[in-house]
C-alpha cells in the first residue's frame, strides 16, 4: 500500500484556491500547509497553517508541492523545492522562458524527482476522447488543427500576456493530441487594452509531421470560447472544452449530385455525432495523475520536459510577433534563443 503524500500548496490566488479544494478531495493525499505572502485572500485554509514562503513550507515537512504563484516566481521557488527533494507540480507555464524552464527541468531530473506542469486541458474529457479516437485512426491522416481560446480579460493576470497565459494551453494540447512537435510558427500580436503585455495573438504553424496549425487567442472577446478542431481525411472532430463535449462530423459516403455545391465544398456532408462522455473536473484528474506519478504507478502527468517544449514554442511565437518573420523551433531548442527566417514575411510558415 502506498504511503499518504504530505502536500503543500504555494500561492492562494485564483488557481491556488482550486488546487487546495482538489487536494483535500484527492485520496492518498494529506494537505498539511499552505504558503502565500499575502495570506489567505479566498479563505480556503480552514485549520491549516498559512506560512509566508517556500522555505517555511519546506520546514513544515512536505513530500510534494503545488506551485501556483505568478509565473515570474516559478523558477526561484521550483529550484528551492528541488533542492529540498520535494516532488512538484508547477502551474503552466513552467517558467518565464525556455532557458528558465531548462534550469528547472534539469534540477528535478538530476534529483530523480517528479516534476509536473499544470496543463489541465489534457485532463478535459473531450480532449482525452479526441486523442484516443485520433490514435485509433478514426480521422485517418490528419490535415489541420485549429484552436480558439477567447474570453474577457481576467483580472487575476498581471505578469504575462495572452501568449504565455492562454496560448500555451493550445501549444501543449495540439502536440499532445496529434503526437508531433512544432516545426515552425508565424505569429502576430497586438495590445488593445492599454496594458504592458499583448492581449491578442494569431498563430500559423506547422508540426514536424506536416500538419498545419492555427491558433486564435485573445482576452478581448465578450464571450468565452474554448474550441479545438482537428480535420482529417475522414472528417473532423470538434471539442468544446468548456462543456467537455466532443462531436464527430463525418465525411459523406454519397457523392453530391449538385455540381456547384460539390465543387464548393470539396467533400460531402455525412452524419454528425456528439459523444456521451463521463465528465469529471479536469483539475481533479490532474491531481490524481500527479499523485500516481509520485507513487510510481502511472506516468500520465505532463512532464517538465513537455512543459519546456511548450515554452520553446511560446518563445518562438513572441519572437515571430516582434520580427514579423517565421521562426523555426530548432533555433530555440539548439541555442536557447530564437532565430527568425527572412524568407517568411507572410502568414504561411516556412518548411524546414
Automatic annotation (TrEMBL):
Tree of life domain: Bacteria
Region of interest called Disordered, as start-end residue ranges on this chain: 328-352
GO molecular function, one term: nucleotide binding
Domain annotation GFO/IDH/MocA-like oxidoreductase: ranges: 128-237
Pfam family, one: GFO_IDH_MocA_C3
Entries under Gene3D superfamilies matching the protein: Dihydrodipicolinate Reductase, domain 2, NAD(P)-binding Rossmann-like Domain
Segments of skewed composition (Polar residues): 328-342
Name of the protein in question: Gfo/Idh/MocA family oxidoreductase
PANTHER family: BILIVERDIN REDUCTASE A
Domain Gfo/Idh/MocA-like oxidoreductase N-terminal: 5-119
Organism: Schaalia canis
